[in-house]
Each structure stands twice: as structure tokens, then as C-alpha cells.
């Protein structure tokens, strides 16, 4: 079993649309989708969302 190289440490949990975005992005990575785009206004949590994706797939994007 591979150990997670990236462990997100945050007092916050994904909220609103973030859980669905994380799930869809992870599925895209796991199925080999070559390009994905995450859109959101300033301060909407795009970086936090992608950090959760990196943690879930255990590799840098």
C-alpha cells in the first residue's frame, strides 16, 4: 500500500460545490482525461479544491 505523499492540513472541509468538483476532477484523472479546467471567481476556493484532488489521487497535478 502506497503512503500518501501529500496530506492536506486544514481546519476547513470542502463545502458548497467543492465536493462535487473534487469528485469529478478525481474521476477525470483516474480515467485519463488529458485536460480539465476548474473555473471560479476570486476567493471561491479553487486552490483548496485542487489541493483536495492532489490528496485524493496521491500525485501532483
Features:
61 residues, mainly alpha, globular
Topology:
Elements (H helix, E strand, L loop, with lengths): L17 H13 L15 H12 L4
Helix pairs in contact: 1-2
| Tally of discrete structural domains | 1
The averaged pLDDT comes out at: 92
Output the number of helix runs: 2
**Secondary-structure element order, as H and E?**
HH
**Shape category:** globular
Rg, alpha carbons: 12 Å
* Biggest sheet details: none
How much helical structure, as a percent, in the residues?
40-55%
> Total number of β-strand segments?
0
How widely separated are the two ends?
A: 21 Å
Unreliable runs: none
Structural class: mainly alpha
- In what range is the share of β-strand residues? under 5%
Structure description:
With 61 residues, this protein is an all-alpha fold. The protein has one domain. It is 41% helix and 0% strand. The chain has two helices and no strands. The chain has helices at residues 18-30, 46-57. The longest helix is centred in the middle third of the chain and has 13 residues, at 18-30. It is globular. The mean pLDDT is 92.
